Amino acid sequence: MSTDLAADIAAAGIIVDRDVDVPMRDGARLKADVFRPAGGERVPAILNLGPYQKDKPWIVPDTLEEKPNALMNWETVNPLWWVARGYAAVRVDGRGSGKSPGQCEPWSLAESIDFYDAIAWAAAAPWCNGNIGLSGISYFAINQWFVANHRPPALKAIIAWEGFADLYRDALFHGGIPSLFMPNWFVAHLLHHLVGRASRHLADGWQSNTLHFWLRNNLDSGAFRGAQAQWERIDVPLFSVGNWTGMGLHLRGNSEAFMRAASAYKKLRIHTGTHVHPFYSEDGRRDQLRFFDHWLRGIDNGVMDEPPVKLAIRSGRDAFQWRHEHEWPLKRTRWTKLYFDLSPPPSGMAENAAGLVAANPAACASRSYAATSLGSMGSTSAASSQVMGGGIKPGMGIALETPPLPRAIEITGPLAARLWVSSSSEDMDLFLTLRHFDADGEEVLETGQQGAPVPVAKGWLRVSHRELDPLLSLPYRPYHRHQRRLYLAPGEIVEVEVEIWPTSMVFGKGHRIRLDIGPRDGVGSASYMHYHADYNCGTNTVYSGGERQSYLLLPVIPSA
To answer: What's the DSSP call for residue 7?
Structure first.
């Protein structure tokens, strides 16, 4: 320990207990670090459990609002800040990771049971007042949903900060299309544990063939139930925190949590920008602290009397203003359909240009485009070639665009698209990207979750997965079963509904709203690309007008 760090710990009045044994019900002992006040008082504890290694150094960006220190660990709370405010911070290496023995099975039922046991252990510790809260980003948010399924008695509140809630729909298979982020994530942590420093403590972990299990269960057959939030069972007070730019991994889980969780006490915050900066911002820490002070320390600070929804209303190029609301989606939403006009484009316009118009065209029209076979080329290469080109290219899809807007329009909420399609092949992948162009024709992009520029919103659907769940589908948020494949006959025309993940954007006067429909990943997909099965090749066709109404459904918010 450095002299400076020891001085900081002493000045903050912190006791640091390293490699503490956390007993599990099967006799295993996981390893944890505990950071707690030196005064001897019993305090609530904030827990994390996961595979990111409690001892793995984090090179903290110097752009964080929170002052970096050597006690900080990736995506977890900063002990120096929280202990000084009357909390203990506990980091547990999940089974088979870091210094904990066994085999790691990320987001499994087994891991959620271990988490339950860790919560019970911490609550009974002599330094704890019996109240446990969970807070953390990403992995440390995701498994909060899954342990909350079990209703641990000592769990009094959770703050799930950018955490998906359904391993199948939110992360592994977007609209039934395999996402490459998760296989890449798994291989990265397999490498950390087999050839990185962690292998010195745990040489034989990560033997479970999780990747095979994930890909083999490519329908929602029930295999992932332990890694899916059971909303009717989640009744703990919750603070669900999303990021508009997390539209390839986390955002859907956070909005679904607020809409569907059984908890009588819940709040929703959706910000923008990168994955870690808002969590460590002064504003983000204040929101977390007030929520935990109320539920874990019994402080009557009025946090639950305030409007439950806090949204960053974006206006383009990272500009935004906070606004408080009373519900989600907003009651005053004017659900607005922009219909596809696929009639031939005027002379001089790109061949894939089409219109988004206020009324359904009387005459039916269609556009076709090629969905080419990838051959031996990987999906990442295919998507990268599209991304580098700035989006959809002629012959590779359809670009639907409004005329210049006569006035500024705010779109905040869930989105959806309904369209009629066919293919010469047995299946068809639909990639929808909502884009924003200013009055000069320049695209307006935002700083994404991973730091790269991103467009407004995205949605996906493999057409064979088009079957809806009638009990869970809403007009603005279709919910697909993903329990069987309805393959296409060549030329068969079918109606499909595509979920587009929620967003917020004010499109200025003279700006244009554009929807790209393509056969593979487009602009802003660099971190969340997809695998396109080899049967998704041929000629795809989209129809509009007449009896085949195809449209984009937008949540337009009237001006005050």
So the answer is: H
